[in-house]
Structures are given as structure tokens and as C-alpha cells.
Amino acid sequence: MATTSWTFLTNHSHVLLCLAQNPSARIRDIAVEVGITERAVQRIIVELEADRYLEHIRDGRRNVYRVFSRKPLRHNIEKHRQVYDLIRLIKR
Question: What angle do CA 39, 11, 56 make, to 5 degrees?
Fold first, then answer.
């Protein structure tokens, strides 16, 4: 029987969780951790910033990210929860 490669959380949540754990993570490292391309990580970060789930601050040649953990999750099923709840659930 073949196994499928789906997961319960989206790539957006995976990127957000990576940045919550390491705010100065490089896009290359996030891509490896999540298992997607660097371009996909960049697109996700742009989308998360556009919806104010995170922001970046330049620190020399690198970005440092700030996750807005008190924002509500987006889907109707989970909108009663905040990003903080997801981070707390998954935190290593």
C-alpha cells in the first residue's frame, strides 16, 4: 500500500512555526526544514507579512522576523484560537 505525503498543517503554518522558533532563520534553512523551495518560502513570507502575521526587520545583511502571535487563526473552524495557541501546541 502506497503512503501519501500529506500533513495536517500547511506550509504557511510550518514557515510561521520555524520563524517563531528561530526569528533569524535563513530562508534556505526554512526551505530545508519545511521541505519546499526557497522561492516558496519567500512567497509564503510575503503573504504572511501582507496579512500582518509577521514582519521583518533588517539586521545588517539579514532579516529578523517578528511573529504576531496574538492574531487569530484564519479558518472558521479555528478562528477562536490565536497563532500563540498553535505555537504552544507544536513547540519543541
Answer: 60
